[in-house]
Design brief:
Layout (H helix, E strand, L loop, with lengths): L5 E8 L7 H11 L3 E5 L10 H6 L4 E5 L7 E5 L3 E3 L14 E6 L6 E7 L13 H18 L6 E6 L12 H4 L7 H12 L3 E2 H5 L9 E2 L6 H4 L2 E2 L2 E5 L7 E6 L15 E6 L1
Parallel strand pairs: 1-2, 7-8
Antiparallel strand pairs: 1-14, 2-4, 3-4, 5-6, 6-7, 8-12, 9-12, 10-11, 13-14
The structure holds one DNA strand of 15 nucleotides.
Amino acid sequence: MGNALAMRLVTWNINSLRLRLPHLETLASTLRPDVICLQETKVPDPLFPAEALRALGYEHLHYKGMKSYNGVAILSRYPLTPLDRLPDWHGKEDCRHVGALVHTPGAPVELHDFYVPAGGDEPDVTINPKFAHKLAFVEEVTAWFKNRTRERTILVGDFNIAPLEHDVWSHKQLLKIVSHTPPEIERLTAWQNVGFVDAMRHFVPAHEKLYTWWSYRNRDWKTSNRGRRLDHVWVTPDLVPSLSTMTVLRDARDWTSPSDHVPVAVDFTL
DNA sequence: ATGGTTGCCGTGCAA
């Protein structure tokens, strides 16, 4: 970005960092983000392609990954101070959260990158432990943020919950589908109400459809357009005046061998 | 109501 006191932030569930490294290069050269938060990197730390990312201009890297599943990463042109001592959510070492102070040309901002559990297919905690895990994860994260100072903080990631009626293609048909059920939405809303503002909906009114994910299982994602907004950018209220633009990079869903999620970019004047 | 596809790997599992 031209403005020295600005930051372009992208969040993207890349669904395998190593497979889609060429797409990340495209993203880096076209949007030129200052900071990129990735989810589902699916790469153990010793195999993380750090050199390739540094070559793209992301000198500062903070990541936590494992074999085959999950994995999150922050790539930054600005120096990072990783937040160590983040909780081990739900007693699992499953690489769903990293955080760092980002030393922008303005004052530092605290950035959290989350990959919330998808929760399986059955929205019933008594028969589906993955759904129970998802609800418990959000509850634990909510309780943790209640005890922190909540200023100059940004939360992004694949939250795997589409909370608003127009965050899904059919509110009525998805009410019993994991990602849009009332217990998930209640918990996500409680988390947000700890002290965050939905930055995407700051730009796009609640009555307009807004999606970031289209299933692989639709032959023609664009025609059927059965999308959901699973990816989010939240900011503390003090950062709302610094929100400048927001872009959902819908075109990325048509890239060769795409992720099922598309990148979301937000520009700040910090 | 069901099945649809993808990535990880080398089989089913998770999404």
